[in-house]
Amino acid sequence: EPEVTQTPSHQVTQMGQEVILHCVPISNHLYFYWYRQILGQKVEFLVSFYNNEISEKSEIFDDQFSVERPDGSNFTLKIRSTKLEDSAMYFCASSEQGSSYNEQFFGPGTRLTVL
Amino acid sequence: SQKIEQNSEALNIQEGKTATLTCNYTNYSPAYLQWYRQDPGRGPVFLLLIRENEKEKRKERLKVTFDTTLKQSLFHITASQPADSATYLCALARGATNKLIFGTGTLLAVQP
Asked: How far does the CA of residue A61 sit from the closest CA of chain B (Å)?
């Protein structure tokens, strides 16, 4: 069964460093998303991406964040200068269409630890 | 803004019993409501979706109801098993690309 994959599973970085989180969505899906989950809190939307551009972003997704789909398969989230409060699980998700009745398929997540 | 509330306390039940989890939402009335399962350290996994004009939806041992008057969805697991122990999230889709807004989730623990 096709699945969303994410690498690395765990990333440790120093405050102020740049990190890039990698995702490979399901191949025939058109909509891509990043969510994050701070330990003990709910899953929060960061950004959605369709047709090679950002479709929607939350207020969390400030100028320190960017997304890219550098080729036909990868979807990356970059944090330019990490802060302590960026420590969280980051989940990539994809869906076939962007309709409200379409389920989203989530990857296993990358645990980001900022020291 | 849209709020989704789920029982924040863990639900502990005996194996074989029916677990019932509650999801309440405010403001916007969604056309669809989704339920996901999340295991520790893992991403959410889709379980069921229910439309506003459906009173009830079933899938194997799972049942979801949707009451748009009460703004509430109930999620039932019948004949629960220890393997059902996880956090269950309700979510609704909003915005141009239907980003998911999640509740805080309810932790279910099924005791053998």
From this structure: 14
- Those residues of chain A that have pLDDT short of 70 are 100
**Structure confidence by residue, pLDDT tens digits, B28-50:** 777 788 999 999 999 999 999 99
Selected from 3.30.300.30, 3.40.50.720, 2.60.40.10, 2.30.30.100, the CATH number assigned to the domain covering B3-111 reads: 2.60.40.10
Options 1.10.10.10, 2.40.10.120, 3.30.200.20, 2.60.40.10; CATH for A5-96+104-114 is 2.60.40.10
Q: What is the mean pLDDT of residues B45-58?
A: 92
Considering only CB atoms, A104 lies closest to which of B46, B103, B104, namely B46
Q: Is B41 in Cβ contact with A109 (below 8 Å)?
A: yes
Q: List Cα–Cα distances, B64 to A42, B21, B24, B73, in angstroms.
A: 21, 10, 13, 7
User: Cβ(B79)–Cβ(B29) under 8 Å?
Assistant: no
pLDDT digits (tens, 9 = 90+) for A58-77: 999 999 999 999 887 899 99
Which chain A residue is nearest to residue B49, measuring alpha carbons? A101
Q: Which residues of A touch B49 (CB under 8 A)?
A: 101, 103
Angstroms from B46 CA to nearest CA on chain A: 6
Distance, in Å, from the CA atom of B107 to the CA atom of B38, rounded to the nearest integer, reads 9
The secondary element (H helix, E strand) that includes residue A66 is strand A65-68
